[in-house]
Write a structure and sequence with these properties.
The complex is a heterodimer of chains A (about 260) and B (about 400). Chain A is of the alpha/beta class and about 260 residues long. Chain A has one domain: Aldolase class I (TIM Barrel). In chain A, about 50% of the residues lie in helices and about 15% in strands. Chain A is built from 12 helices and 9 strands. In chain A, strand 1, helix 2 and strand 2 form a beta-alpha-beta unit. In chain A, helix 4 runs parallel beside helix 6, helix 9 crosses helix 10 and helix 10 runs parallel beside helix 12. The mean pLDDT of chain A is about 95. Chain B has about 400 residues and is an alpha/beta fold. Chain B has 2 domains: about 160 residues, 3-Layer(aba) Sandwich (Rossmann fold); about 220 residues, 3-Layer(aba) Sandwich (Rossmann fold), CATH 3.40.50.1100. In chain B, the strands form 3 sheets. A 6-stranded mixed β-sheet of chain B has the order 3-4-14-9-10-13, sandwiched between helices. The radius of gyration of chain B is 20 Å and the shape is globular. Classes of the chains: A alpha/beta (about 260), B alpha/beta (about 400). At the A-B interface, helix 3, helix 5 and strand 6 of A face strand 2, helix 2, helix 9, strand 11 and strand 12 of B.
Chain lengths: ~260, ~400
C-alpha cells in the first residue's frame, strides 16, 4: 500500500471524492512554491501533483508552459524538486505526492538513481506524459518494482482497443484527461465524462480522477460527482503566475476542494 | 535469417520503432492511437503499387525528378584533389529536397481521409513544400514557425501565404524550430480527428523517422544509378548537411550496405562546438535524451533541460537529430563532423563563383567539408555531396553576414 492507496481507501470509507491539486515546483520561486505546497493539505487537497519543470512541455497549454519557464528561470532543478518533496514530507507523512512531468530530466539523471532519490524524498507516484504503455520498460516497470505508483493518463482517444494496454502495469489511480488537447483548454463537460470513467474503472479496477478544463468549484463538484475525484492545475497555476498572495491562492484552492468534496 | 540480412544496416527500425536504443514512441496517450493508425496506413502503402505509381508520377511531372547528378569540374580543379559530384536536389520544385517527403505524407493523409494538414518549419522550406502540395490538392494547411524564423525568413513566409497556408508565428520558448514543433504537437493533440501532422525531417515518434527516410531515399536511389552510369562505380564518399537529417538520410540510406562507400554527415557548428553551446551539433556536442517523440542525441544541460542551439542556417537550427543518424554514429557506419557559420559562408561564396550555383546555407555546410577534405584526396576519389537546397531564401542572411547593404544598394 502506498500513501495513494491508503488515501483512496480512507476517502472511500468516508464516502468522499478526492481533490487533486497541481502546482509547478519552483514557480514562481522555490520558497513561494514550498509555502503553497505546505498549505495544500490544510486547504483540503487530498493528493498533490508536483510539476517537474521542463523546457519543452509538449502537452501543456500556455499557463503551464509559462509556469515551467518561471521555475526554470528561478533556478529550479530536479534536485530542488526532490528537496521540496523531502522538506514537505518532514512535516506531512500522509498526503500523497505525485510527480508529474516529462521523461528527459529523469532519463538524464538516470532512472535507477532517480527512483532511489524519489522514494527517499517521499514521492509516491509518477505521471510522465510522454511515456505511453509502448515505452513501459523505460520507467514504468522499474518504478513499480521500486514501490512507486505509475499513474497512467487515459484520454478520449483511448478506445477499447487501447484500454487494456493503458490499464496494464498501472497502479494508484488512473488520470482521465477529459478533452483531447493541451492543459488549460476548454471546460470539461460532466455529461461526457461519466461513461468514460465507468469504462476505465471497469478495465483498470482503479480509482479514476478527471482533469483538464476544470476552473471553478462548480466544475470541480460536477466532475467529481461523475468520478472518484477531480484534478485542477491551470486555474491554480494561473493565480500563482499573476502573483496572488499565498493565502489567496490557498483560499481559491480551498473553494475548489470544497466543491469537489460536496460531490 | 540469411547472412546478408544479419549484416545489413538497412533493416531498422525494429517493431518498437528503435534503431538500436534510439527512436521509439515517446508521445502522450492522446497521440498514440494516431501514430499507430499512421504506421498501419504507411505499412499498407509501402507495398501498394498504386501508391508508388502516384508518387512516381508526381515526382516526374510536378517535382521534376530525377534531379541531375552534376560533375562540378571547376570546383574539382580549384580544390585540386577528389572528383566532386553534386546531387542537384535544389532544382526540385520549391527549391529543396523537402517536397520529396511532403508528397508522400500528403498522399497518405488523403488516403486516411484527413482534411487539415499541419507542419512545423525552420527555414521555411518544409513549410513552403507543405503549403505547395496542400494547394495542389485543395487541403487546409497550417504552418507553425518560430517567431524568430518568421523574421529571418520573410520571403518564405510570404510564399506560404501566397500558397494559401496559414502561418502561425510561435513565440513560446525562443521562437525557433524546436518551439514550432512543440506547438505543432499541441495542435495535433487538440485536433486529433481531422488533422495530419506532416513532419519535415527524419525525427519524431515512430513511424516518422523511417517513413520520411523512405520518401527521401529517392535521392540515394537515383544517385546510385547515376554514379554507376557516369563513373561505372559507386562514389567513395557521400557528404550531406544535417539539421534533423532528412536530406542526408535520403542520400545515405540506399548506400548503407555498400561497405566501400564512406559516409559523412555535416552538422552546424555555429560559432564553434564548445561548451558555450553556440552551435547545433547534437552528435558532436550533445548526449542522448528524449524529445519530440524519440530518443536521440540532444543539446541539453546537466539537468536534462533542452538548450537552444545557434546556426546561421535556420534549417539546421534544431537541438536534436534523427534517431537513425544517432545509431549510425554510435555503430560507426557514418562519421559526423561539424562546420562553422564562417566556413559555410566561405563555401557558399566559392560555390557561387566556381560553379554558378547559389546554394542554400544548409548544403553550404556540406560543401565546406568537401573543401576541407577534397584537396588531400587522390584524383580518382569520387565525392558525391547533396546540394539539397537553393540559396534564394538565404540571400538576405548572407548579405547581412557579408556586410552588404541590400536596401541601399544602387
Amino acid at each position: 500500500m502506498t500513501r495513494i492507496d491508503t488515501k483512496f481507501a480512507a476517502l472511500q470509507a468516508e464516502g468522499k471524492k478526492a481533490f487533486v491539486a497541481y502546482i509547478m515546483a519552483g514557480d514562481p520561486d522555490y520558497d513561494t512554491s514550498l509555502e503553497v505546497m505546505k498549505g495544500l493539505p490544510e486547504a483540503g487537497v487530498d493528493i498533490i501533483e508536483l510539476g517537474l519543470p521542463f523546457t519543452d512541455p509538449m502537452a501543456d497549454g500556455p499557463t503551464i508552459q509559462l509556469a515551467g519557464q518561471r521555475a526554470l528561470e528561478a533556478g529550479q532543478t530536479l534536485q530542488k524538486t526532490l528537496d521540496m518533496a523531502r522538506t514537505f514530507r518532514a512535516e506531512d507523512n500522509e498526503t500523497p505526492i505525485v510527480m508529474m512531468g516529462y521523461y528527459n530530466p529523469i532519463y538524464s539523471r538516470g532512472v535507477d538513481r532517480f527512483l532511489d532519490e524519489a522514494k527517499e524524498a517521499g514521492i509516491d507516484g509518477l505521471i510522465i506524459v510522454d511515456l505511453p504503455p509502448e515505452e513501459d520498460s523505460e520507467l514504468c516497470l522499474p518504478a513499480q518494482a521500486a514501490g512507486l505508483n505509475f499513474i497512467r493518463l487515459a484520454t478520449p482517444t483511448t478506445d477499447d482497443r487501447r484500454l487494456p494496454a493503458v490499464a496494464r502495469n498501472t497502479s494508484g489511480f488512473v488520470y482521465y484527461v477529459s478533452i483531447t488537447g493541451i492543459t488549460g483548454a476548454a471546460n470539461a463537460v460532466a455529461g461526457d465524462v461519466g461513461p468514460e470513467v465507468a469504462r476505465i474503472k471497469a478495465a483498470s479496477g482503479l480509482p479514476v480522477v478527471v482533469g483538464f478544463g476544470i476552473k471553478t468549484p462548480e466544475n470541480a463538484r460536477d466532475i467529481a460527482a461523475t468520478a472518484d475525484g477531480a484534478v485542477v492545475g491551470s486555474a491554480i497555476v494561473e493565480r500563482i503566475g499573476r502573483g496572488d498572495a499565498v493565502e489567496d491562492i490557498l483560499g481559491f484552492i480551498k473553494s475548489l476542494a470544497d466543491g469537489a468534496h460536496a460531490a | 535469417m540469411p547472412e546478408d540480412l544479419i549484416n545489413s544496416f538497412m533493416t531498422g527500425p525494429d517493431e518498437a520503432g528503435r534503431f538500436g536504443k534510439f527512436g521509439g514512441r515517446f508521445v502522450s496517450e492522446t497521440l498514440m492511437p494516431l501514430i499507430l493508425d499512421l504506421e498501419a496506413e504507411y505499412e499498407k502503402a509501402k507495398t501498394d503499387e498504386t501508391f508508388w505509381a502516384e508518387m512516381d508520377d508526381l515526382w516526374a511531372h510536378y517535382v521534376g525528378r530525377p534531379s541531375p547528378m552534376y560533375f562540378a569540374d571547376r570546383l574539382t580543379a580549384y580544390l585540386g584533389g577528389a572528383k566532386i559530384y553534386m546531387k542537384r536536389d535544389e532544382l526540385n520544385h520549391t527549391g529543396a529536397h523537402k517536397i520529396n517527403n511532403v508528397l508522400g505524407q500528403i498522399i497518405l493523409a488523403r488516403r486516411m481521409g484527413k482534411t487539415r494538414i499541419i507542419a512545423e518549419t525552420g527555414a521555411g522550406q518544409h513549410g513552403v513544400a507543405t503549403a505547395t502540395v496542400c494547394a495542389k490538392f485543395g487541403l487546409k494547411c497550417i504552418v507553425y514557425m518560430g517567431a524568430h524564423d518568421v523574421e529571418r525568413q520573410a520571403p518564405n513566409v510570404f510564399r506560404m501565404r501566397l500558397l494559401g497556408a496559414e502561418v502561425v508565428p510561435v513565440t513560446s520558448g525562443r521562437g525557433t524550430l524546436k518551439d514550432a514543433m512543440n506547438d505543432a504537437l499541441r495542435d495535433w493533440v487538440t485536433n486529433v480527428h481531422d488533422t495530419f501532422y506532416c513532419i519535415g525531417t527524419v525525427a519524431g515518434p515512430h513511424p516518422y523517422p523511417a517513413m520520411v527516410r523512405d520518401f527521401q531515399s529517392i535521392i540515394g536511389k537515383e544517385a546510385k544509378a547515376q554514379m554507376l552510369d557516369r563513373e561505372g562505380r559507386l562514389p567513395d564518399t557521400l557528404i550531406a548537411a544535417i539539421g534533423g537529417g532528412s536530406n542526408a538520410m535520403g542520400l545515405f540510406y540506399p548506400f548503407l550496405d555498400d561497405a566501400d562507400v564512406g559516409i559523412i554527415g555535416v552538422e552546424a557548428g555555429g560559432k564553434g562546438v564548445n561548451d558555450k553551446m553556440e552551435h547545433c551539433a547534437s552528435l558532436n556536442g550533445g548526449r542522448p535524451g528524449v524529445l519530440h517523440g524519440n530518443r536521440t542525441y540532444l543539446l541539453q544541460d546537466d539537468d536534462g533541460q533542452i538548450l537552444e542551439g545557434h546556426s546561421i542556417s535556420a534549417g539546421l537550427d534544431y537541438p536534436g537529430i534523427g534517431p537513425e543518424h544517432a545509431w549510425l554514429n554510435d555503430i560507426g557506419r557514418a562519421q559526423y563532423v561539424s562546420v562553422t557559420d564562417v566556413e559555410a559562408l566561405e563555401a557558399f561564396q566559392l560555390c557561387c563563383a566556381q560553379e554558378g550555383i547559389i546554394p542554400a546555407l544548409e548544403p553550404s555546410h556540406a560543401l565546406a567539408h568537401v573543401t576541407k577534405i577534397a584537396p588531400d584526396l587522390p584524383a580518382d576519389h569520387i565525392i558525391c555531396m547533396n546540394m539539397c537546397g537553393r540559396g534564394d531564401k538565404d540571400i538576405f542572411t548572407v548579405a547581412r553576414a557579408l556586410g552588404f547593404d541590400m536596401e541601399g544598394a544602387p
